[in-house]
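Hey,

Quick one before I head out. I ran the complex with glutamine overnight. Inputs first:
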Amino acid sequence: MTTEIPLIGDYSTPGTELNGARIGVVTFPGTLDDVDAARAVRLSGATPVSLWHADEDAAGSLKDLDAVVIPGGFSYGDYLRAGAIARFAPMMDAIAAAAGGEAGSTRGLPVLGICNGFQILTESHLLPGSMIKNDHLHFICRDQALAVENNETAWTRDFAPGQRITIPLKNQDGQYVADEPTLDMLEGEGRVVFRYLDVNPNGSRRDIAGITNAAGNVVGLMPHPEHAVEPGFGPDTEHGLRTGLDGLPFFTSVLSTLASGGAA
Ligand SMILES: NC(=O)CC[C@H](N)C(=O)O
């Protein structure tokens, strides 16, 4: 069962007109950023739909959805390892089947994992590699500059190639690791989607901040685009102006992808 998420507030910023797309936002026990993710979806013009991790008809609930966001937070309190318990949720089985794993599937449901969502995607083996503690062993919260290395995924096509963006980063388990052959494969296939700029905040291998599956429909990243979608709330971007809209193209990109009829 799914419910459209009622939202309060002013939508007179971009994307006020509803465009017919329905995007699911998953909630686990301990999820933190589902409300902000839903608001970002709505600001892009799509309708956010709430998805519950333990839904007994998870596959049925995904049927009329066009994309899914797995938001940030501390699913199951990050016990054992961030995302390690969430991966066994019935909703994750349904998402994996609809998204198609590493290679993508015929449906190729677009899935965006943000921070804890990225951790859940690696634990679920929808994306390769693992997230471990930041190398300095501290929780970090900062406005982080990134380079968009691949603008041909379902969630990045509204960016320019190589575009510099700034969005918030806040986590303790943000260090992306993988063995050298996997890192070489990701680089070789253009699957590094975002790279940290100016500073590597957590020791991630090769400054990797986000990656995609082979088909380009599943994307995960540690920084939080849903916190940079409204004027006055996101990080300073250019010339000290508080524009803070660098997260919005994630959510409009998936709409462009859907409009063009492709998964990526
Ligand atoms: N902001 C978040 O999603 C936090 C993610 C995660 N559980 C961590 O600290 O690392």
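The two ends are 27 Å apart (CA to CA).

Talk tomorrow,
K.
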